[in-house]
Amino acid sequence: MKTVTSSNGASRTAQVKAVDSICPYCGVGCALTYYVDPAQNRILYVEGRKGAPNDGRLCVKGRYGFDYATHAQRLTKPLIRKTESYPKGPLSAENQEGASGPRKPGGLVDYGQVLPHFREASWEEALDLAAGGLKEIRDTHGSDFLAGFGSAKGSNEEAYLFQKLVRAAFGTNNVDHCTRLCHASSVAALMEGIGSAAVTNVVRDIENSDVALITGTNTTENHPVAATFMKDAARKGTKLIVINSRRPELADFAEVYLQIKGSSDVPLYNAFMNVMIAEGLVDEEFIAKRSEGYEELKKVVAEYTPQVAARYCGVPAEEIVRAARLFGGAKAAMIFWGMGISQHTHGTDNARSLISLALISGNVGRPGTGLHPLRGQNNVQGASDAGLIPMVYPDYQSVEDPEIQKKFEEYWGVKLSPTKGLTVTEIVHGALEGTIKGMYIMGENPFISDPDTNKVRKSLAALDFLVVQDIFLTETAEFADVILPASSALEKIGTYTNTDRRVQIGRPALEMPGESRQDWELICEISTRMGYPMHYGSPSEVFDELARCAPSYSTLNYEHLGAFGKWYPCPDPVNSEGEQIVFGDSFPSGKGKLVPVHVSDPDELPNDDYPFVLNTGRLLEHWHTGVMTRRSAVLDAIAPDAFVEIHPQDAEQWNVRDGGYVRVTSRRGEIMLKARVGERSSPGSVFIPMHFREAAANVLTNPAVDPLGKIPEYKYCAVRVTPVDGQDGATAD
Amino acid sequence: MTEKQSGQKLISLTIDGKTVRVPEGTTIWEAAREAGIDIPVLCHSPRMEPVGVCRICVVEIGERVLAASCVRKCEEGMQVQADSDDIQQHRKMLTALLLSDYPQQSAREESTGDDELLALARDYGITELTFPDGAAGPEGRGTDGSSPVIAVDHQACILCDRCIRACDDIQHNDVIGRTGKGYQARIAFDLNTPMGESSCVACGECMAVCPTGALTNKSVAGLKIVVT
């Protein structure tokens, strides 16, 4: 007879503690619980929590991608560059030593090649050297010869302290972070248009939308859990208008999908407005009460008939009309966008078009309406809010306004620079020109993330002094004089602000490895050693200081945030969750500004030598420069390889075989990687994910920037694709 | 009650003699839960639309047969008996039938210890089965270890459809469905391809909602988890 037993066959037992925290990856900010074995200092598994952004849902990164933090390659001791390892240059080969061509995966930085150039040091020595090197440049050359890159992966507290360090101790506003590479143009357009760069409504309110315009975002891969709510809404009747030059999975759920040509957003949305104005599908009352500049806008969009736009966009005029009518006819419509809008030399113009579209149709400030630039990093909203931007103090207060400057001089007890600082791209350029001589980089990896890697390499090598603070030896750290081993998100307490403006507390699940230290403490150590003492008891104290100088955060503290966080603004943090929808009555700038824009070309167009348009982006399983996810066993196993996606027609014409190796060449460099033949991109256009250093997409990309947002044109440059002999890489070297 | 429901008409019923008032459209299972009466269930989860396939949650409502409380809506004046000897007997029999096919080891019970079928077996004091062992012999439903993260044991699957709803209705990945008929019926990925080769994006939602040892987390296999 069969017996039933609950006794288990497990051979080992783990005493596990549950830690309620939030996911360290994307801007959705999913609430989750880590189940941790403290005896082994390991996270064993993860469960979703019923947080406002995710309702218990997770994606592959959140659920399985936590093991990077306990990877054996974590930095555990401060490192100082050996004297014989100057002058500086890259230390690791792009491909693994001994690899005869690209068959062996290049993978991450080879520690064996890099570590011999550094020696271990005590914290005292490393911090004295780091602070001393920066101080010397400040005192001999001047404050503006220094710059700092903070990180949108750090907490609000770290971002606040970092910008305070740069402003108060370095004495310059040269502080920026990867928001520059992500939504800087959206921010510029939103600040100009409505006076606030945060989203006007949360992702999940799409359930109240009749129509949602989802453009320039591959949401399923880059904000996976947000995409599940969009699909929920679609199933329940919200009509999705999906627009992308590379087919996103959400197109399967769309009422209308327009696969427009890369960089043809402005004519498309001008044509939307053209149709809506011609057919009376605008909100006259909203336009009159809440906006200005309508007559000018009308004049400009009149030129962009659906037929004109169809020529730019490569989609039929009737489809444009259909989409425009659908959007214009909606009682409540929401607009979501991603980097397909922002990462262009006219990214600001693209975002302006979307803002105008929302304003003339009255789709801001009510349930089911809103402007939502989907934030990429877990804390890109918060890092920007905390002032990790060269033009503004915390909460977007201009550094060039003498009144505000005076206020912050009082807060911080030090004289501040009255001129706005340089952006990421300008700082990299400045290093090459010698106008930036020293840098402190916390948690960013510009070597892989910035456009035109060969230029970045020269820039980093040209710096007199570089301090890198990170959890792994990154490509950027190869150029450092001092490397400070720091904390991962899984080892610290801190707040992170998600794409919905929800401020949530991340809690420590793991102990830090070796002698590595908390980032916020290291910032304080360096500042103090540079003559501007910083002393705090805990991150919660830092948050309180941030809240005092950032009006949007003024009502919040750790106690109120609790287990699930709050949306800001939050006038009544005791009884409410904060404001889901903002600007119901007016915008921070008063009336919304309609800024008409004309179509403009991308900076670099294809020609006979470089016939393809290169589009870059991300994969579901990987995160940006791969430093974390390529060290996660599961994520790396699922998506181990770089590839270039090419349309079957082009593959046939250029003799490219699926899985065969090709060289992709732009005016700036060349990489070799496998081809993936598929129909997601249009003929004439190829796609490469940015994560893989051995075939880094940014070797190819164009560093030309948007004039306002200073964001590089990652989504468009000209390349050629040539098959490698034999295509299996056998004869390649 | 959510705001949407608050404006709706309220109806009264009794559950185990306790009077409850709920908005129209509420299921008996939900109403009982609101009233603090726990009705056991395997196929339903509050995160999903109920489908009423396991019939563990049946209750007596004075009809010819027992009603599945997870799908049956409350009606005015309804007198629900959520617990009685008959109902207990019914639930115990269903549990025993499911267990007769169940593998001797549940990967879920072994690791996180939250196998819901085995929990029911404990509740009903089932230690021996009078049915032939459906999991013995060569006719087994097999396993699928092709996913890097999720272990699939078809023998431990009770076809509750939670994973299907998690995949299709919660995450909208539309990967999991059913294949086969009768005893050979089982869950399948895409057109019955191994999970690791299917269009699965490894979000893990199916694994998170599975009540048995059918879909479990590979990384904790064989490790007894004791949450302190």
Could you list some keywords that capture this structure?
heterodimer; A: 733 residues; N-terminal domain of TfIIb; Rossmann fold; Dimethylsulfoxide Reductase, domain 2; six-stranded mixed beta sheet; 30 strands; B: alpha+beta; Ubiquitin-like (UB roll); Alpha-Beta Plaits; 2 domains; three-stranded antiparallel beta sheet; 11 strands; disordered N terminus
In words, what does this structure look like?
The complex is a heterodimer of chains A (733) and B (228). The relative contact order of chain A is 0.17. Chain A is globular. With 733 residues, chain A is of the alpha/beta class. In chain A, strand 1 and strand 2 form a beta hairpin. In chain B, a hairpin with a 7-residue loop joins strand 3 and strand 4 (67-68). By secondary structure, chain B is of the alpha+beta class. In chain B, the strands form four sheets. A three-stranded mixed sheet of chain B has the order 2-1-5, covered by helices on one side. In chain B, strands 6-7-10 form a three-stranded antiparallel sheet. Residues 1-5 of chain B have low confidence and may be disordered. Chain B folds into two domains: 9-83, Ubiquitin-like (UB roll) (Roll), CATH 3.10.20; 107-220, Alpha-Beta Plaits, CATH 3.30.70.20. Chains A and B meet through strand 1, strand 3, helix 1, helix 7 and helix 23 of A and helix 5 and strand 11 of B.
- Bin the helical content of chain B: 10-25%
Q: Do you know the CATH architecture of the largest domain in chain A?
A: 3-Layer(aba) Sandwich
Largest sheet of chain B: 3 strands, mixed
Number of domains of chain B: 2
Q: Which topology of the largest domain in chain A does CATH recognise?
A: Rossmann fold
Mean pLDDT of chain B: 93
Low-confidence stretches of chain A: 96-105, 729-733
Biggest interface, CB < 8 A: A-B, 41 and 47 residues
Strand order of the largest sheet of chain B: 2-1-5
CATH class of the largest domain in chain B: Alpha Beta
Strand portion of chain A? 15-25%
End-to-end CA span of chain A: 66 Å
Give me the oligomer status: heterodimer
Mean model confidence by pLDDT of chain A: 95
Number of strands of chain B: 11
